[in-house]
Design goal:
The chain has eleven helices and eight strands. By secondary structure, it is of the alpha/beta class. The chain has an eight-stranded mixed beta sheet with strand order 1-2-4-3-5-6-7-8, with helices on both faces. Helix 3 links the parallel strand 5 and strand 6. The longest helix is centred in the middle third of the chain and has 19 residues.
């Protein structure tokens, strides 16, 4: 696999391209991982789709071999940086209709922003366990969430910055929040985003794939996203959660992607 480092949006990003030539006219897949992941989590899928087209895998700034960006980027900032890369690298590499963004979780947020803000750069979105909308919670869940948030804010106001406050964040925050380190402001910003308006402006075809056991981004998010994106199709795969859909669900993902390629050919 060939690795290059590109400068985009004032940040360095590692880009990986598997060896091997794809057939003339084949689509190009641009793979974007989820939060806390790297291109390695998408690589088995990329390798399984070699017969369908070529691949470019990204380590988004702040993950894997890419250092953090210079500030607290939003998903729009990530999308603009990726657009800079795509414009520079593939402006002469075939029509954008043959370029498909494949994202998982956080990578889907970036993909939605990319399709909305730079519609001429990609011809389709294939989003796996897509985030981007607030969770729909039952009344008991909302009460528990509000109580937990109140308890955290109260304890935080009484705890000085230092190890004790770090322990408090670890206790009340998510695992991603506890591990985020210097990327924590970006995580907070991303989780707080509501991409409903962004989704409405996506003009390219999109496929939304979810596992029916996903508790991180449950399929109800996909139902609402599919209602917002004009040309979209929702697929719910049985027996998979937020992570296993990438691994145990690999063959079904490849099959659905193959169908999508035929649809937009």
């Amino acid at each position: 696999m060939r690795k290059t480092t590109v400068r985009i949006g004032g940040a360095d990003a590692a880009v990986f391209e598997p060896e091997g030539d794809s057939r003339p006219g084949a689509p190009l897949f641009v793979w974007a991982h989820g939060w806390g992941h790297t291109h390695r989590n998408m690589l088995p899928l990329a390798e399984a789709t070699r017969r369908l087209g070529g691949s470019v895998l990204l380590d988004l700034p702040g993950f894997g071999d890419s250092p953090p960006p210079p500030g607290a980027w939003s998903t729009a900032d990530y999308a603009d940086a990726v657009a800079e890369f795509l414009t520079a690298r593939f402006s002469a590499g075939g029509p954008p209709g043959r370029r498909i963004w494949i994202g998982h979780s956080f990578g889907c947020r970036v993909g939605l922003q990319l399709a909305s803000r730079h519609p001429g750069l990609i011809g389709g979105l294939f989003l796996i366990a897509a985030a981007g909308l607030p969770r729909t919670r039952s009344l008991p869940e909302r009460i528990r969430f509000a109580a937990r948030r109140w308890a955290f804010r109260t304890a935080r106001s009484l705890t000085p910055e230092g190890p004790r406050r770090d322990a408090l964040r670890a206790r009340f925050g998510s695992a991603d929040y506890a591990r985020a380190g210097p990327m924590r402001p970006i995580l907070v910003k991303a989780v707080g985003e509501d991409l409903s308006g962004v989704a409405r402006t996506v003009s390219c075809p999109a496929v939304l794939v979810y596992g029916d056991r996903d508790s991180e981004t449950p399929p109800e998010i996909g139902t609402r996203l599919s209602g917002l994106i004009p040309q979209s199709r929702l697929i719910v795969l049985r027996g998979f959660d937020h992570w296993s859909v990438l691994t145990d669900g690999r063959h079904q993902i490849v099959q659905r992607l193959s169908e999508f390629v035929e649809q937009i050919a």
